[in-house]
């Protein structure tokens, strides 16, 4: 039994953290810098996961099932 990956994009909100940081006195400029750092880090993780999924699909064939739906999903991207 494999792990089925979600077919929709995952959204991660940092709004609560943004509000807390401002409440604790950090400037909006610092919070924006933090947002940019977080966005870059999450983007890097997404790129690594996508690359891994593509390599798995190429190893076992694009018609195979990897983690539920990854290979089929990757063909649509």
Structural class: mainly alpha
What's the helical proportion of residues?
A: 55-70%
Q: Biggest sheet, open or closed, and with what strands and sense?
A: none
How many helix segments?
A: 3
Characterization of this structure:
The chain is mostly helical. The chain has a domain at 28-76. Helices cover 64% and strands 0% of the residues. The chain has helices at 15-23, 28-60, 70-76. The two termini are 25 Å apart.
Question: Which helices and strands, and how do they pair?
Answer:
Elements: H1 15-23, H2 28-60, H3 70-76
Brief description of this entry?
The protein has 77 residues and is mainly alpha-helical. It contains 3 helices and no strands. It has a domain of 49 residues.
Question: Features of this protein?
Answer:
77 residues; mainly alpha; disordered C terminus
